[in-house]
Design goal:
Layout: H1 21-45, E1 54-59, E2 62-67, H2 69-94, H3 98-123, H4 139-159, E3 189-194, H5 196-216, H6 223-235, E4 237-243, E5 246-251, E6 257-261, E7 265-273, H7 275-279, E8 283-286, E9 292-295, E10 299-306, E11 310-315, H8 319-335
Parallel strand pairs: 9-11
Antiparallel strand pairs: 1-2, 3-4, 4-5, 5-6, 7-10, 8-9, 10-11
Helix pairs in contact: 1-2, 1-3, 2-3, 3-4, 5-6
Length: 339
């Protein structure tokens, strides 16, 4: 007698092997700590040329905060190193999905470069001075550090290796929604999803910073509101597409972008999420249970399981239709012989 498998619970798959740990360690730990160590060494080599104490804070009237060089270097290096190690641990132990590793590497390299650049950039004008209060403005140094750190952070994210296709050992859930498609029939589903709350918050912040820049005539600080505008376009407005190739989620800016190939998709379902409770915030997020995705509002969410126990979510309207169509395409891909 043949057993009826329709009501059997699929066996629990073995734990997924965490890939790219070597690359995560190199990009997310070795590189940023190397940048930080180099900047600290350079600043230390200037000790005899710097005033004591050195200036560490500037106001509208110039330098107005001071500290010993040792305190400055030790505190900044320790705090930044702890942040880098925490991000590396996230990528090393929870980096099943490439976006998690990209986020960790990008933030690690970017933050370390920013701190290193601001440290060296603010100490360089003080060389040869007897009184740190005589140090000039540091706007150029901060602006340069911000630009370079952003570029290097993006480069680290881009260099993060892609996830290798995992074996299709996972079984799709039989109760997952599906849309009947005739053999060879083509179909697509496209939706735009955005967060009015995120746009309002960042839009208000952008306006306030812009007013402060204009009033203070600190024109180099315009890089801050410009960055906030790019952040709004990159994090709070997305286009979600389901077609025969799989699922594609991209921001209105074009990056970030995520594509889940149909051949790696196990199944798709509909869920509801709370950004703060489930993901600790809004935007491109990762949760403690290993899910990653675009979470920009509470409510209806498309959740996609991929081979290797990877789960990706995106908050979007009409998620049921997207899930059903994606499941149908995944079924078709499994029935099509490879090659």
């Amino acid at each position: 007698m043949t057993a009826d498998r329709s009501h059997q619970v699929p066996p629990t798959p073995p734990p997924a092997t965490v890939q790219h740990r070597t690359a995560s360690t190199l990009l997310g730990l070795v590189v940023p700590l190397g940048v930080l160590a180099t900047a600290t060494a350079v600043a230390s080599s200037w000790r005899d040329d710097l005033p004591a104490p050195v200036a560490i804070h500037w106001g509208s009237a110039g330098a107005d905060g001071f500290s010993s060089l040792t305190t400055l270097l030790v505190s900044t290096a320790a705090i930044t190193a702890a942040f880098v190690v925490a991000l590396w641990a996230l990528a090393f132990w929870r980096g099943h999905a490439r976006p998690v590793r990209q986020l960790s590497a990008g933030l690690s390299v970017g933050t370390a470069t920013l701190v290193a650049g601001m440290t060296v950039g603010t100490l360089a004008p003080q060389r040869g001075l007897t009184d740190a209060a005589d140090a000039g403005g540091i706007g150029w140094a901060i602006a340069l550090a911000m630009v370079v750190s952003a570029l290097l952070g993006l480069a680290a994210a881009a260099l993060t290796p892609r996830s290798e296709p995992a074996p299709g050992a996972d079984d799709p859930r039989p109760d997952a929604p599906r849309i009947a498609l005739a053999e060879g029939e083509r179909a697509a589903w496209v939706r735009r999803t955005s967060s009015s709350t995120g746009v309002l918050v960042l839009g208000t912040a952008t306006a306030l910073v812009t007013v402060a820049v204009v009033v203070g005539s600190s024109w180099w600080m315009l890089v801050v509101p410009a960055s906030l505008v790019l952040l709004m376009a990159a994090m709070f407005s997305w286009v979600v597409t389901v077609d025969s190739t799989g699922l594609t989620v991209r921001s209105s800016l074009g990056i970030p972008r995520r594509h889940l190939p149909v051949g790696e998709i196990v199944d798709a379902t509909v869920d509801t999420v709370s950004p703060l409770r489930d993901f600790g915030g809004y935007g491109w997020r990762t949760s403690t249970d290993g899910r990653t995705g675009v979470v920009i509002r509470a409510g209806e969410t498309l959740e996609v399981r991929s081979t290797g126990e990877r789960r990706f979510v995106v908050t979007v309207d009409d998620a049921g239709t997207a899930a059903a169509l994606l499941n149908s395409f995944a079924d078709r891909a499994r029935k099509t012989p490879a090659g």
